[in-house]
Amino acid sequence: MEGIVGYGAYIPRNRIKVEEIAKVWGADAPSYKKGLMLEEKSVPSPDQDTITMSVEASKSAVKRAHIDPREIGAVYVGSESHPYAVKPSGTVLAEALGATPEAHTADFEFACKAGTEGMFVALGLVKAGEIKYGLAVGADTSQGAPGDALEYSAAAGAAAFIFGRDNVVAKALKTYSYMTDTPDFWRREYQYYPQHGGRFTGDPAYFKHVMGAARGIMDKTGMKPPDFDFVIFHQPNGKFPFRVGKRLGFEEKQIEQGWLVNKLGNTYSGSSPLGLTACLDVSKAGDKILLVSYGSGAGSDAFIFEVTKKIDEVRDLAPKTRELLDENKHYLEYGEYAKFRQKIKKAN
Amino acid sequence: MPTPSRYWREIPQRYRLEAQKCKNCGVVLFPPRLICPECKSRDFEDTKLAEKGKVLTYTIIRVPPHQFVDQAPFAVGIMELDDGVKLTGQIVDCDFEDLKIGLRVKIEFRKIFEEGGSGILCYGYKFVPDM
Ligand SMILES: [Zn+2]
C-alpha cells in the first residue's frame, strides 16, 4: 500500500525567547507565554531560507528512504516564503538532490497548508501509478510585523516526505480535505508583512476547518478519537491544538509528542508536517496517526497513517526532530535577530 | 560576482559536490578538468566528495568583499574531507571560541550570497560542526 517511504526534518539552531521580544515592545512576557503557550521560537540564519532548509530536510528523507534520487518523479515545495517571487524553489531542491531532469516540480502556496498540499498531490500521483516516488516539503521562514502578536510565533523549519508504494514506513490509509473562502489572514503583493483578522482567525477559521477535516476523515473511515496513538493539528500557537483536540474528543497525551510549538514557534507550512516527523521518530508498527493541517484563506488537509515495522530500520538514519529542537541551540538578542531577519533599514 | 550562466555551470559542484577521479593515477579533481594535472590522462570516472571531514586550518574574515559585508565577521577554512580531498569553504553555525583545528564538520546547503536586491540567489555548500 502507498505511503511514506522516508521523512526528514530541519530546524535552524537560532532561537529567540518570548521575553527578549516582549522587552523591546514593552509587552508583558508572562501574559504572552501563558496566552499563546509559547516560550521561544526558531530563527533562520541570514544564509538560510525555505530552499536551504528544504534541501537539508529532503536529504534526510532520501537517507531514510534509501532510494536513488533519480527515481523521484515529483518534487513539491509548499511555503509562503519562497525566496523568489518568480522562479521555483523546487528546481533548486531537485537539482541539489540530483533528481533532475525527469521530475514534475511545483511550488505550492496556501498559507500554512502548503506543505500538506504537496503531500496530498505527491501521494495521489504515486497512487495513480504515474510516478515511483514523490517528494513533498513543507518549509517556511515566516515573518510577523515587529511588535505584532505574530512576531512571537513566526518561526523557521522544514519537513520532507517521500511517498512510494513499496517498503513504506507509514501506510496512508485515507486523505480528506475541507476548505472554504475565509479571509482570516492574507498578504498582498509587494507587502512585506501579513495582515490578520485578529479574533476572526479563531472559530470561523482555524477551529471550523480543522474540526471539519478531522470529523470528515473519521466519518469516512469509521474511526474514533481513541483509535489514534498520535494526533497532530496545525500549531499557530500552543493553545489552539489542545483546544481543538479537546473539542474533538482527543486526550492531551495523543497530542503531546507532535506538539513542538512551545519551543519551536509556528513554522507555517512546516508546522503540522514537523509534528508528524516527531511522531514517526517514536512510533511503532501498528500505530495510527491523524494529521490535520490548517492554512488561512482557508482550509485543512487530513491524513490517516498506519506505521509499519519498517520504521525501526529507518528512524536512526537521520537526525530526529526533537534532537534538532532541543540540542545545539543558539540564543539571539533582539538586535541580532532584527539583523538576521532584515528588519533594520540601512543606507543603500 | 558570477553571472547567472557561470553560477549555472557550477551547479553540479556547488549543489552536489560532483567531482571526477582520474582512472590512470586515481587523483580526485574538484572541479572537474579536461586533463589530469598529475598524469595528463583524459580518462575520468564520476565521483562525489565526502560530506564530512575536519578543519585543517581556518581564519576569521573581518573585512570581506562587498557582497559578504553583512556576514562579517565569518570563518573560512580549509577542510580535509573523509576521502582525503581538501576543500575551502565558510564554516558557519559555530561560535569562534569553539572553532579549532581538527573540529569535525559536515556539509550543509546554504545561501552563499545574493546579487544585490534584485539579482540571483547563489546557493552552495558551507561547513557546520558535526555534532
Ligand atoms: Zn591522473
List keywords for this structure.
heterodimer, A: 348 residues, alpha/beta, Peroxisomal Thiolase, Chain A, domain 1, 2 domains, nine-stranded mixed sheet, three-stranded mixed sheet, 13 helices, globular, B: 131 residues, mainly beta, OB fold (Dihydrolipoamide Acetyltransferase, E2P), three-stranded antiparallel sheet, binds zinc ion
Brief account:
The complex is a heterodimer of chains A (348) and B (131). Chain A has 348 residues and is an alpha/beta fold. Chain A has helices at 18-25, 29-36, 50-65, 89-97, 114-128, 202-221, 239-248, 252-255, 261-264, 271-282, 311-314, 321-326, 334-340, and strands at residues 3-10, 14-17, 40-43, 72-78, 104-108, 133-141, 156-164, 170-182, 185-186, 195-196, 230-233, 288-292, 297-307, 330-331.
Explain what this protein looks like in three dimensions:
By secondary structure, chain A is an alpha/beta fold. Chain A has 2 domains: 3-169 and 314-340, Thiolase/Chalcone synthase (Peroxisomal Thiolase, Chain A, domain 1); 171-307, 3-Layer(aba) Sandwich (Peroxisomal Thiolase, Chain A, domain 1), CATH 3.40.47. Chain A has helices spanning 18-25, 29-36, 50-65, 89-97, 114-128, 202-221, 239-248, 252-255, 261-264, 271-282, 311-314, 321-326, 334-340, and strands spanning 3-10, 14-17, 40-43, 72-78, 104-108, 133-141, 156-164, 170-182, 185-186, 195-196, 230-233, 288-292, 297-307, 330-331. In chain A, the strands form 3 sheets. In chain A, strands 5-4-6-7-1-8-13-12-11 form a 9-stranded mixed sheet, sandwiched between helices. A 3-stranded mixed sheet of chain A has the order 3-2-14. In chain A, strand 12 (288-292) and strand 13 form a beta hairpin. By secondary structure, chain B is mainly beta. Chain B has a single domain (4-129), classed as OB fold (Dihydrolipoamide Acetyltransferase, E2P) (Beta Barrel). Chain B has helices at residues 4-9, 11-16, and strands at 18-22, 28-29, 44-48, 52-61, 74-81, 86-91, 104-114, 121-129. In chain B, strand 1 (18-22) and strand 2 (28-29) form a beta hairpin. Chain A binds chain B through residues 13, 45-49, 51-52, 55-56, 59, 83-84, 92, 95-96, 98, 327-328, 330, 339, and chain B through 11, 15-16, 70-71, 92-93, 95, 108-112, 121, 123, 126, 131. The complex binds zinc ion (ZN). The site of zinc ion has 8 residues of chain B, from loops.
